[in-house]
Amino acid sequence: MGISFDLNNFIYDFSCNCKKVQKKSFSKGQTVTTYIKNRNQLCILLNGHVDLVRYDSNGNRTIVEHFSKNDFFGEVFYKVTVNNELIVEAKSACTVLFYIYDELKEQCDTDCKFHNTLSERLPELMLDKITELNTRIELLTQRNTRDKILMYFSLISTRKQKKSFELPLSLTDLADYLNVNRSAMMRELKLLKEEGLVDKIGNRITLLYK
Amino acid sequence: MGISFDLNNFIYDFSCNCKKVQKKSFSKGQTVTTYIKNRNQLCILLNGHVDLVRYDSNGNRTIVEHFSKNDFFGEVFYKVTVNNELIVEAKSACTVLFYIYDELKEQCDTDCKFHNTLSERLPELMLDKITELNTRIELLTQRNTRDKILMYFSLISTRKQKKSFELPLSLTDLADYLNVNRSAMMRELKLLKEEGLVDKIGNRITLLYK
DNA sequence: TTTTTTCTGTTGCAAAACTAACTTATTATG
DNA sequence: CATAATAAGTTAGTTTTGCAACAGAAAAAA
Questions:
Q1: Residues of A with CB below 8 A from B179's CB?
Q2: Are B127 and A77 inside 8 Å of each other by CB?
């Protein structure tokens, strides 16, 4: 999920002299950042996993996006409003680069290869982000819990090129990601197993159809 | 909804000599385009209204996005799959520019101001698109029909800077846009009226709270 | 203008989803 | 290792949503 862009070539010679970036590490459970209006932060996840989550006034949690290595996130992608408190939480130990978008998008005058490559590639990275978000919307506009589960599995399966795969999220998190009630999702999963459409052993899903 | 970018300055002196663009007009109800893999079309709506819609195998219709003047759409923003037939339908008479993204993003060698301005501004246009899509996701991740309705009204109200506004969609279309059953939505609207939270006279909504 | 079509508003009933609670696994942590 | 915390799995009861059908209003077409 999120933008995927192979930064590996740059990570190892990462040496942004320009002071326009902050690099921080977090341990599991820590808050990486909270989205703030008008700051326009853009963050790059160098390793680990983080979730962008929203809690509503009833305490319901929504996992808006789930980010892995080399994904991009930050308030630059959001219209931040009062009704809309967005928090990025570390799901595992992780390291994150923090830029301010207006500084990042300019070419860096201090000959910083990482930064300059990034700003050049920004348009294609954003286009990738758009397609990811449209896929997310397609997932959320599935009509019922079953269709959401099946589409989610199908997406992972296609990405991995395999009919069998490990879930990258816990089932509790998956429910919050699909925006459905956890027990309703469990019930539907059980039915899918009983009907022989899906096999599930622990965290491993196998699609049995087609 | 969609990207908003003031093209007015360019529309009137629109004279793309570069043959990289097609301009077509449609009447209400016509199909503007169907998303096709690997073509990477990018379209600009010059006037009128169009909907990006998806029909599932049960005949359910989802309005994925609703576009107005100067909005952008096209398959360049999508991972087009077999499960995912996307159609753009004209909701009113409209005129559309059709580009192929790879041609558009290059500067135009034939001194075409419109085209060149567009390709320069592409990054900011895409960033706008991302924030629009994230707002769409926030709407779709509301927990129930009531919350979707209220958030939708709140978005329109904020955009118009008024507590009272005309709905830009029919109620039938609004249900397909919010991804809820029409009669369930009507029931909820009725309750909102009875509870004095919202007033509704024909197509005009007035928010009575706060 | 008349006719046809689409949209709005409403309802009873059925199906799906949510809530809350609890037990059993599994995974962290002292 | 023992204990605590979190996650998985399940269920009964309740609420919400969807379905289907219909009548009246409004809009479009003839």
A1: 140-141, 143
A2: yes
Does A57 map to a domain?
A: yes
The single residue listed with the structure tokens 């219209």 is A79
Domain range for B72: 7-135
Domains: count for chain A? 2
Inter-chain touch A78–B134, beta carbons under 8 Å: yes
Give B8-63 pLDDT, tens digit per residue.
Answer: 444 434 556 666 788 899 999 999 999 999 999 999 999 999 999 999 877 789 99
Q: At what angle do helices B113-140 and A113-140 cross, to 10 degrees?
A: 50
pTM of the model: 0.92
Among candidate residues B83, B111, B135, the one where a domain is terminated: B135
- Mean pLDDT throughout B79-101? 89
CATH code, B126: 2.60.120.10
Helix (H) or strand (E) holding A169: none
Distance A24 CA to C28 C1' (A): 24
Q: Which of A102, A135, A168 is the last residue of a domain?
A: A135
Separation CA A43–CA A22 (nearest Å): 9
B94-CA/D26-C1' distance, Å? 24
**Of residues A28, A140, A156, A34, the one with CA closest to residue A94:** A28
